[in-house]
């Protein structure tokens, strides 16, 4: 029997936890009911967690509770977090991972604190210049990995090259049957476009491009992120954060206006009787809960951040992401990529 | 009688011109049929333009043709444009404007060349550190002005402050009954977020904020661009270009998926019978042709760039934009803003 996938879960972080996290765990257990190749380590107050396990009728030997009595507050600043967050459910997840008792950590708590303590405890992987926050983003043919989403406001060409290595390793671990196609986000597709940093990074990615590592497709403009021609979109954390949030805002604006249009009078409401299932499927395809979970890459072990305000179904999707990342051997994919990149 | 608004139109630039541009002119004349406070100066081959005026049944004394026999090609590089574009319909528009014979120029031709020759011929307005490309972007309550959209890949704090002055002047000229509310696009709304350049610009905008000039609302994140809380969104040209194109790509992705869902079978097609008018209204509200036209600000006179691939209705909207900008006294609004900003 091969080693079980071990996931450290901060049961207390995020809005409406631990109800949210424990119900998310329940959805996960339901969807993998024929598997026993994992262990879920729940960090938080044992009594409260036991109570919630009862509430959601969870009975399994695939769960382990590790009792901790404090929680990182939402107001905590990353600057003072290191002193104050020792012994919290979040801290103890990462510590558990450092000791080799879990393979990955998941939290819906304070993002800034999670990034700071993950980096401090797990430390950067050898050969990586900066860690990055990666996310999933739908495209016309499936899914993109996009990074950095905000861990690094300013980046040099080496950072961008590293992000390409990290992002394509993540893509390979999540979609083992597909080939990562990397693009650099820029204001035009011609070689003369963009900053000097982008031009340098592009030149180096061209040299690194091959069938085994990743295929480098050149620059991509914002309007083509979702076209499906590339599936690993690399950018600095400032631009990535603005692009992701602008896409979210646009999607919200359009669906809100669509909803208003389709419910504005009696006739349009009749139309909903006929389009109900189609619109439900449409909504499901674009449901942001399906893309919940930003992956902190480049440390000695991956850490996943669930959106703090998301519900239990969204939390389940980020837990599923943790399982798939480890199942797909992310860390060895990253090491293979970095080794290859050094040999070029 | 006050002086007529005089608009220089490059009749030959962009795909499918001059058919597109002349039909756009027709839409404009139709929508202002009770006005005679403007003159449209059409630059291009006189015989061809006369032929198209006949084709679209345009008969008016509000049009003047200024014959030019060459056109800037789409492949022309901005680097060699200055030498090669002299005497083209685009060049002669800007020259006409420099000589005070028109107040504004409009072209759907080569963007790079238009920016270079506009800047060279019209020169920068005194007190402006860099010109910017501004665009319109719908929000929940009406319309945003967003700038810079790509004229300046790298910007310092002075440039961003100037963009706030230029953008709020444009907003006031287009929407005289509303108050410009300026925000800086950033990765978070807290004061500690973002680059040093943004922090410096934010501090200066706070000092400049007042009822007469513009209200400074602080940082805005990508997901709130369309919320309507601010209406002048300031950013560097790299970020602005990525944000705008990402929003375009997202809107296209969603509407394409929606269309597929609503036409996937017989039942959903029935729903379209009931939702036809509501969906048409929805589509009209988000029609990108309504927002066509990027405004080049900060020179001694405004220049408007219509999208090259847009149709005649889109071209009409950018012509309408030109008319409104001059009607709203853009240049004196800018001068007032700059004067005020120097006195603080």
> Are there runs of chain A of 5+ residues with pLDDT below 50, and where?
none
Mean pLDDT of chain A: 91
CATH level-two architecture of the largest domain in chain A:
3-Layer(aba) Sandwich
Q: What's the total helix number of chain A? A: 11
Any idea what the radius of gyration of chain A is? 21 Å
- CATH homologous superfamily name of the largest domain in chain A? Isopropylmalate Dehydrogenase
Reconstruct the topology from this structure.
The structure is a homodimer of 344-residue chains.
Chain A: E1 5-10, H1 19-31, E2 38-44, H2 46-55, E3 63-67, H3 78-84, H4 89-98, E4 104-107, H5 111-122, E5 132-139, E6 142-147, H6 157-174, E7 181-185, H7 196-208, E8 215-220, E9 232-234, H8 237-262, H9 266-285, E10 294-297, E11 303-305, H10 312-327, H11 330-343
Parallel strand pairs in A: 1-2, 1-4, 2-3, 4-11, 6-9, 7-8, 7-9
Antiparallel strand pairs in A: 5-6, 5-10, 10-11
What does this structure look like?
The structure is a homodimer of 344-residue chains. Chain A has two domains: 1-128 and 298-317, 3-Layer(aba) Sandwich (Isopropylmalate Dehydrogenase); 129-294, Isopropylmalate Dehydrogenase (3-Layer(aba) Sandwich). The first copy, chain A, has an eleven-stranded mixed sheet with strand order 3-2-1-4-11-10-5-6-9-7-8, sandwiched between helices. Chain A is built from eleven helices and eleven strands. In chain A, a hairpin with a 5-residue loop joins strand 10 and strand 11. Chain A is 46% helix and 17% strand. Chain A has helices spanning 19-31, 46-55, 78-84, 89-98, 111-122, 157-174, 196-208, 237-262, 266-285, 312-327, 330-343; strands at 5-10, 38-44, 63-67, 104-107, 132-139, 142-147, 181-185, 215-220, 232-234, 294-297, 303-305. Chains A and B meet through helix 8 and helix 9 of A and helix 8 and helix 9 of B.
């Amino acid at each position: 029997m091969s080693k079980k996938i071990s996931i450290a879960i901060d049961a207390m972080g995020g809005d409406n936890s631990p109800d949210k996290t424990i119900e998310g765990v329940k959805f996960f257990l339901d969807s993998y009911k024929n598997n026993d190749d994992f262990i879920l380590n729940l960090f938080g107050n044992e009594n409260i967690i036991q109570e919630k396990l009862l509430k959601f009728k969870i009975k399994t030997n695939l769960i382990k509770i590790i009792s901790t009595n404090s929680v990182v507050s939402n107001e905590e600043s990353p600057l003072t977090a290191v002193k104050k967050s020792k012994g919290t459910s979040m801290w103890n997840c990462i510590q558990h991972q450092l000791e080799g008792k879990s393979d990955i950590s998941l939290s819906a708590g304070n993002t800034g604190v999670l990034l700071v303590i993950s980096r401090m405890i797990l430390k950067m992987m050898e050969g990586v210049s900066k860690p990055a926050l990666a996310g999933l983003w739908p495209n016309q043919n499936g899914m993109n990995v996009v990074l950095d989403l905000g861990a690094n406001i300013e980046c040099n060409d080496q950072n961008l090259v590293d992000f390409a290595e990290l992002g394509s390793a993540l893509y390979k671990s999540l979609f083992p049957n597909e080939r990562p196609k990397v693009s650099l986000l820029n204001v035009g597709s011609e070689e003369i476009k963009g900053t000097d940093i982008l031009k340098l990074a592009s030149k180096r990615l061209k040299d690194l491009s091959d069938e085994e590592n990743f295929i480098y497709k050149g620059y991509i403009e914002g309007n083509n992120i979702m076209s499906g021609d590339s599936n690993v979109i690399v950018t600095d954390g400032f631009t990535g954060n603005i692009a992701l949030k602008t896409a979210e805002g646009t999607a919200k604006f359009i669906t809100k206006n669509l909803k208003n249009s389709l419910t504005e009078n009696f006739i349009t409401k009749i139309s909903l009787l006929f389009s109900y299932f189609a619109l439900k499927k449409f909504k499901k395809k674009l449901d942001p809960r399906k893309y919940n979970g930003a992956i902190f890459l480049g440390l000695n072990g991956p850490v996943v951040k669930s959106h703090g305000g998301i519900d239990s179904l969204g939390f389940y999707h980020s837990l599923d992401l943790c399982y798939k990342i480890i199942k797909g051997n992310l860390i060895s994919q990253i090491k293979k990529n970095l080794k290859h990149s050094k040999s070029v």
